[in-house]
Design a protein that fits this description.
two-stranded antiparallel sheet, 4 strands
Length: about 150
């Protein structure tokens, strides 16, 4: 889209096919967080992930052109029938993310918060709470096992 909207004066893009554009960085962070956090063990299987929201290809193209400052290209919505392709495309290709959301709730909540700069303070608070709970757990362990610690000297 970047190249097309930079080179062309007019561009026809289908508006009757909807999906959920997904930022590859969010997908990678989700996979990394689930695997690195050890949440995947015991939860093996097939999961669908995409960002939130729904957009037509026309909506997506218009946003890409606007973000890139390609305002000279006139993007016109058209129907799928006006834009024949060799492969049949579904009109609605939004993934059902129920399984990943319910299985990995905390990871999904943290990723959602991380995508909103206004909510960065919540991310910071969650990180501090996790750190404090870890320290408290360590102190509790050391207090309960102080006799064991003496024997190792």
């Amino acid at each position: 889209m970047l190249r097309l909207t930079a080179e062309k004066e007019r561009l026809n893009v289908v508006f009757d096919q909807a999906g959920t554009p997904t930022y590859a960085g969010d997908l990678a962070m989700t996979i990394f967080s689930i695997v690195e956090g050890g949440y995947f063990a015991g939860n093996e299987g097939l999961y669908h992930f995409s960002n939130e929201g729904v957009a037509s290809w026309y909506d997506f193209a218009a946003e890409i052109a606007a973000a890139a400052g390609h305002d000279k290209c006139r993007i016109r919505p058209c129907r799928t029938a006006e834009f024949p392709t060799k492969a049949a495309r579904p009109a609605y290709s939004v993934l059902d993310k129920t399984k990943i959301k319910t299985t990995f709730q905390m990871v999904m909540i943290c990723l959602m918060i991380a995508n909103f700069p206004q909510l960065q303070i919540l991310t910071d608070i969650i990180m501090w709470i996790a750190l404090i709970l870890t320290v408290v757990s360590l102190i509790d362990y050391l207090v309960k096992n102080k006799d064991v610690m003496k024997d190792t000297k």
